[in-house]
Specification:
By secondary structure, this protein is α+β, with helices and mostly antiparallel strands. It contains two helices and six strands, in the order ββββββαα. β5 and β6 form a beta hairpin.
Length: 89
């Protein structure tokens, strides 16, 4: 299930989104900002904030690692409040 604007062919944005593989071996790229949860059923299932789900070959740990790398690449975790390091005033 692909929501428009959420996943694109992997060749389009190889350095901006996370690259994943469907169970049929087809690669695609996904904007990690929209990931709500990643589960193993035993297949890895990614649920997005728009209720779309993707089943991928990568393990839950691999998806988490790629997501963390994506966040570091776009500097989303550079804000201490998002990291949990900031003190509320």
């Amino acid at each position: 299930m692909v929501g428009e604007g959420w996943a694109v062919p992997c060749m389009v944005w190889p350095n901006i989104l996370i690259n994943l593989t469907r169970l049929n071996g087809k690669e695609f790229s996904l904007n990690a900002l929209y990931i709500e949860k990643v589960e193993s059923f035993p297949d890895t299932t990614i649920s997005l904030t728009n209720s779309n789900k993707y089943v991928v070959l990568e393990t839950r740990e691999e998806v988490s690692r790629k997501t963390a790398q994506f966040y570091n690449q776009i500097h989303i975790l550079s804000n201490p409040h998002l990291r949990g390091d900031g003190h509320e005033e």
